[in-house]
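Revision sheet: structure tokens.
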Amino acid sequence: MTVTYEDVTGAARRIAGHVLRTPVLEVSPGLFFKLEQLQHSGSFKVRGAFNRILSAGELPPAGVIAASGGNHGLAVAHAARALGVRAEIFVPEVTNPVKVAGLRTLGAEIRQTGAIYAEAAEAAAKRAAETGALAVHAYDQPEVIAGQGTVGLELAEQVPGVDTIVVAVGGGGLIAGVTLGAGALNAGAPTAGAMNTGALTAGSLTTGSLTAGALDVASSDAGAPGDGTAGPRIVAVEPELIPTLHEALRAGKPVQVPVSGVAADALGASRIGDLAFGVCSRAGVRSVLVPDEAIVAARRTLWERHRVVAEPAGATAYAALLSGAYTPAPGERVAVVVCGSNTDPATLTAE
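Predicted:
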């Protein structure tokens, strides 16, 4: 089971009109924020949720089911409501109350069970087998990864010539998708520099519907697989307390890791997804680790310096730059994915 660049461009066509084309903000020369926290449901997750559901054809009477630390559940609930289908969402006890309240607002049936995501996922899988509902995995399904990959497609257009894309990692669906969508696997995708649309400046933060035509890049225009075209470097950023990809790359295969810390509700997978590991290992993705203190500081800095509201997971990628876990070279063009904003605003300066 694999996911390809063509799967990502197909997802872009499929979800057109259902998701936002989120803006990019150039915060300093050569440093760009991809503001995915402005996406419907407050995170990138809605891209994969729509692609999975719309790819399934006729849905069962039981609707859709998902396990989530919160953001994926919100995305599935949003997509289900938009498409007029029932959603049942399993979340662990660690889930932020803000996210649980959001699920209720979206009309999902909520089942809160288990201490961590893995336990909620086990309960959801058992329930799906009983009801026949369509399972929408948080990160380890081809359709979900392809949907998340549309973030990479947009970035390649919005930041021509981007050298490095910095992405937070939990289960790996986003980083696998971005790696594919941005052409970092060198599998016939265009390089970022081949696009001709610029990033937004701080004064032009407008969002619009994602159009299929804006992302419909034919492989024939991009060169054949293996033609030597290089995409951007992809840097994975993980909390020190949840190093799923880091440990998998060291072991040469996905392994179980402990889960704890400030970003555990959103980055709390205890094992990197098999599909994501395959993509990241083939692409030579580098993983760096950041302590919780750096994540908290990055979240505060995003708010105080840029007025960007992010949850801890949403600030994790930026934490790598602020803490020095990843130091760009002089002149390096770096894009940071700010991936989620489902948080209590009162905590932005209180931590």
